[in-house]
Design a protein that fits this description.
This protein has about 240 residues and is α+β, with helices and mostly antiparallel strands. The chain has 7 helices and 7 strands. Helix 5 (about 175-195) runs antiparallel to helix 6 (about 200-215). The model is unreliable at about 170-175 (pLDDT under 50).
Amino acid sequence: RQAVVPISTDNSIMAVISRAAADPTCDIEKMERLLAMHERMQDKAAEAAFNAGMAQMQCEIPTVFEAAVNLHTGNAYATLDDITRIIKPIMQRHGFAITFKVENLDKAISVTGILMHRDGHREHTTMTLPADIGKGRNEVQAVGSSTTYGKRYVMCALLNITTSEARDDDAQTADGSDSEEMRAQVITDILERVEQTASPDELKDVWQAALKVLQASGDKVGYDTVKIAVTKRKDILEAKQ
């Protein structure tokens, strides 16, 4: 008995279009309608694949640990590098990629994130924010800071990424090597921010934010290292007053 091979709707439409194109008497308007219908079908199939892939990927995206300290606010936050390092392999497994479009507006920066799927569908969102002219920054650095800030929040919005002061151990490698690398980078970042403080009050804010990060990570050695650095920096700043 001969097996019946199912023919996909897409192939059927293409066959109709091919026959119509070969017929010299074919109505051009009908041909255009057939092509438009085929494009709509492809777009719907790509969107369905995007949604299915997104649903699967969401189950694997962990809460990202807030391992950095904002020097100006004293709050902990997850850096763009940390988010990208954790999310990128998950996106690749499910056929996703993200790119950004940055536009310089009048006294503002517009950052558009474009989330693309291998089957062709894409979604995007845009954030417009002022240039981050902070203490000690020139105009170029202000643009760079705002761009990084925008990319971080746009990526989180597109992928529904959450961050937390508590570490999610599920996001680490089984042998713990990634965790050790992250702890070392956290301490390095905190020490840099400690050295950048310009007043005892500013140092106090950084120390309080760093304390939250260190307690969440459970890094006793890192805590002692940072505490020593903070004490030394405090003595230097108080001596200048």
